[in-house]
Automatic annotation (TrEMBL):
Belongs to the GHMP kinase family. Homoserine kinase subfamily. The keyword Cytoplasm applies. PANTHER family: HOMOSERINE KINASE, HOMOSERINE/4-DIPHOSPHOCYTIDYL-2-C-METHYL-D-ERYTHRITOL KINASE. GO terms for molecular function: homoserine kinase activity. Residues 205-269 form the GHMP kinase C-terminal domain. It is an enzyme of class 2 (transferase). The keyword ATP-binding applies. It holds the Pfam family GHMP_kinases_N. ATP binds at P90, L91, T92, R93, G94, L95, G96, S97, S98, A99, S100. This is Homoserine kinase. It is found in: Cytoplasm. The gene is thrB.
Length: 325
């Protein structure tokens, strides 16, 4: 049995960034922590913090199942585990909580058995589990990740986020299941809309890569998914249309929503105005929301490996200084 104990800190992510549906992702400075150790007897799963109440504590738990997938791939058996998790990433809000759990579990399980699987293998597994590479790519590699998946293999390029980029998110006080938000999308789209998105997504990537932040507003527009999802988030259409008039570089639905995201220049004097515009527009529609100012997270998961019986502080004691709660 492995004598290691592993703690992984993994970032949240935002997917699509407007036009890059299932393709673009950015890691965010909001985190989940997962601890994994082999257990000599039964599996024990401890979940800390609010928001994880409904998450299973038996072997149907996603982290347990993903860890077992890693062990199977590597040809080792670690049937019983001690799992602890704390997350600041709200569930089902479009901030990649499930992708963070998948990536955190893959990285932690791999580290627990001496990292036999490559990072690329983990990316392929994560993409298959999630069904698209955008959130998992961002959580695994950090920064801005541009990826394409053909159903068999995902390739990616990671871009360094511009140091002036900040991210304002408005997180509505209701959940929206990704499945429901994907179900609202049409089976077919018009050629004109496809061409529009190819242009915007390509321009957005080029703007990020070249540091031309002033192009973000023009590029961060979408006709593939946001118009069809707007009905779930009253106020969203107005925010996407007008936030640039209130100091945003560009705005998008974060992933499948309901969180809305604005990219902002760190030195902008209009941050308060923008935040109030988002909150007031949602409130007018009867939606309470919480705003957070985040940064793109440049790095992927941070792994701490301990010898299992080393005298170390308990999980929550160890991460206490870093969590938001
Ligand atoms: N690209 C995905 C979507 C992200 O928009 O449905 C959410 O998982």
């Amino acid at each position: 049995m492995t004598e290691r104990r592993v703690i992984v800190k993994v970032p949240a992510s935002t997917a699509n960034l407007g036009p890059g549906f299932d393709t673009l992702g950015m890691a965010l400075s909001l985190y989940a922590w997962i601890e994994l150790a082999a257990s000599e007897d039964e599996t024990v799963i401890n979940l800390y913090g609010s928001g994880l109440e409904g998450v299973p504590r038996d072997k149907s738990n996603l982290i347990y199942k993903v860890a077992q997938l890693v062990f199977k791939e590597a040809g080792v058996a670690v049937p019983e585990l001690h799992i602890s998790m704390y997350s600041d990433i709200p569930l089902t809000r479009g901030l990649g909580s499930s992708a963070s759990a998948i990536v955190g579990a893959l990285v932690a399980a791999n580290a627990l058995i001496g990292s036999p699987l490559t990072e690329d293998r983990l990316f392929q597994l994560a993409t298959k589990l999630e069904g698209h590479p955008d959130n998992v790519g961002a959580s695994l590699f950090g920064g801005i990740v541009v990826s394409a998946w053909d159903g068999t293999r995902a390739e990616k390029v990671r871009l360094e986020p511009h140091p002036e980029l900040e991210v304002l998110v408005a997180i509505p006080a209701f959940q929206l299941a990704t499945e429901k938000a994907r179900h609202a999308l049409p089976k077919e789209i018009a050629m004109g809309d496809a061409v529009f998105n190819v242009g915007c997504s390509s321009l957005l990537v080029a703007a990020f890569a070249s540091g031309q932040l002033e192009l973000i507003g023009h590029a961060m527009r979408d006709r593939l998914h946001q118009p069809y999802r707007a009905a779930f988030i009253p106020g969203m259409a107005e925010i996407l249309e007008k936030a640039t008039e209130h100091g945003a570089l560009g705005t998008a639905l974060s992933g499948a929503g309901p969180t809305l995201l604005a990219l902002v220049e760190a030195s902008s004097p209009r941050k308060d105005e923008l935040e109030q515009f988002l909150l007031a527009t949602l409130r007018r529609e009867g939606i309470e929301a919480k705003t957070l100012w985040l940064k793109p997270c440049a790095g992927g998961p941070e792994v701490t490996t301990l010898v299992r019986d080393e005298v170390v502080p308990a999980f929550m004691e160890r991460i206490k200084g870093e969590v938001k709660a």
